[in-house]
Amino acid sequence: MKQLFDLSGKTAVAIGGNSVLGSAIVKGLAAHGANIAIVGRNLEKAQEVAREIEGNGGTAKAFQADVSSRDSLTQVAHEIEQWSGGWDILLNAPGKNSTTPFFELEMEEWDDIMDVNLKGIVLTCQIFAKRMIEQERKGSIINISSVSSTTPLSKVFTYSVSKAGLNSVTQYLAREFAPNGIRVNAIIPGFFPAEQNRKILSAERVESIMNHTPMQRFGTPEELQGAAVWLASEEASSFVTGTLIRVDGGFGSMTI
């Protein structure tokens, strides 16, 4: 059974792999043998994650790029290809949030969040998936969505809309890339105290979340590793594409 989840010889490109959730996921992929290219705007944070992976016997390298810039992503794809020869797994885990009330929302802020959370995923898939197809590499694309993508949450209007769009992108590209042997899926995390939501976790909001989460707790970043490793493995999830996998403590199953 261990062979089902063996990622040895595979290279994973992790866009946003220097974030709290992204870094936890790539550590799980690395523990199963994948070589990791960690891509982030903050190179220092990416290097910290790479050093931790290498300290545990894995192979990783940090790269810097702006997910909202095609030129930047094209350049980093070239750098990664020089380092690894190509890639088999693409993890899209960038994320940006805001608590600005709807009537106070300026389009500059809307564009900024959409550029990272939605446009950035479209750009990475155009660049990285195209190269996978050119190299005739089968593989897996894993997008990180949110519980707010299916049930919009209060106080995070733009974030919720961007993640709903990401779900649609996931399912569209699953159909688009299936003939090339590339699977596209999304993980829908529940509430994990990551950077983009800590500032809105008031005592009242935490109580509301717990009342809507059957498991009555927050998730830990490491609890995303199992779903990611499963989706990354060609052996374990070879017939899985276009799916939205919930890792949310039951949040999505609640109504009243």
TrEMBL record:
Recorded coiled-coil stretches: none
Pfam families named among the record's database cross-references: adh_short_C2
SUPFAM superfamilies named among the record's database cross-references: NAD(P)-binding Rossmann-fold domains
Keyword hit for Oxidoreductase: yes
Keyword Oxidoreductase belongs to the record: yes
Keywords: Oxidoreductase
InterPro entries recorded: NAD(P)-bd_dom_sf, SDR_fam
Family, as annotated: Belongs to the short-chain dehydrogenases/reductases (SDR) family.
Name of the protein described by the UniProt record: SDR family oxidoreductase
